[in-house]
Design a protein that fits this description.
single chain, five-stranded mixed β-sheet, about 120 residues, alpha+beta, Aminopeptidase, 5 strands
């Protein structure tokens, strides 16, 4: 599978990305009660943000964003479609974002995650 996988910074304002983020939100709606979720609007298309797309043979299968904050980078909107979970794509995405952050002078990254996401906690 790895021969067809690409991870690159892309625009986040496409229908394809919006569909993936909607899929992500639906996934989290099933994990957490609405009152347990902190609804925040994250502009993954802002000038302070790098949006990373994970593609398999050209098809969008995952994503993540790095938002530059004062003194650190915040990881947001991480998601890998269910059919690709357990394949190491989340780890590869994280490593790609870490490399990008280092090259751009960011020494600290933060990821907030929920207690029902053991894979995210492990990363």
């Amino acid at each position: 599978m790895s021969a067809t996988i690409t991870i690159a910074v892309e625009r986040a304002d496409t229908d394809e990305v919006r569909q993936l983020l909607l899929e992500r939100d639906t996934y989290f709606d099933h994990l957490y009660a609405r009152e347990d979720r902190v609804p925040t609007s994250v502009n993954v298309d802002g000038s302070d943000t790098a949006f990373f797309a994970v593609r398999n043979a050209g098809h969008l299968v995952g994503c993540g964003a790095l938002i530059r904050r004062e003194g650190y980078g915040e990881l947001k909107r991480f998601f890998v479609r269910e059919a690709f979970r357990g394949s190491g794509l989340g780890r590869r995405l994280l490593e790609t974002i870490e490399d990008h952050a280092r090259r751009n002078g960011c020494q600290l990254l933060r990821l907030e995650t929920g207690i029902l996401e053991p894979a995210a906690i492990a990363m």
